[in-house]
Amino acid sequence: MATTKRDYYEVLGVGRSASEDEIRKAYRRLARQLHPDVNPDPGTQERFKEITNAYEVLIDPGKREMYDLGADPLASGNG
Question: I want to staple 18 with a disulfide (CB 3.0 to 4.6 A). Which of 7, 14, 25, 56 is the partner?
Answer without folding.
Answer: 14
